[in-house]
What does this fold into?
Amino acid sequence: MSALSALPFLKPVHLRSPRSSPGGQRRHTLPASEFRCLSPEDAGSVFEIEREAFISVSGDCPLHLDEIRHFLNLCPELSLGWFEEGRLVAFIIGSLWDQDRLSQAALTLHKPQGSAVHIHVLAVHRSARQQGKGSILMWRYLQHLRCLPFARRALLMCQDCLVPFYHKCGFEALGPCEVTVGDLAFVEMQHPVRGHAFMRRNSGC
It folds into this structure.
């Protein structure tokens, strides 16, 4: 069984029933809303959202297109996309890390033996912003991580202005991050993730 098929939390969530035609027969329509792990085929859509969200603010993207494909090939189970009627509107991409704190190498490496999930990027399409989608997606992503037996905590780095957002999502600040990108400095934050056995006893994972 693949890692993705073993995750009941990520079964497609359809928030609208298929429409019926005037004759009473159902027409096949795309689900109104669906959460699923991303695949390398989604990389183009991911990069378009990320590029628009970040370049206008910081002049660069956390992940370039080849890096997106790299992580979606190595660890697709550590990604999550929110699709509305088949169109990607928000996403998170992560990889595994095997040290207490993030270092410069964490920007490009996936450490399969690690137990910390490094969240590289969360981005929302411009048409879907100011609707609370970032918070909802992060909540679902953390629930997803709790169904992975190897995940013990989530790590991320962000600029000062985003600390309140991630604090509301349950992250705590660890202090300045040693990673820098150009002139940008970051705060490192973490969120504990309970293991697979706990979730099986308490939420059916």
In short: Confidence is low (pLDDT under 50) at residues 1-21, 196-202. The radius of gyration is 18 Å.
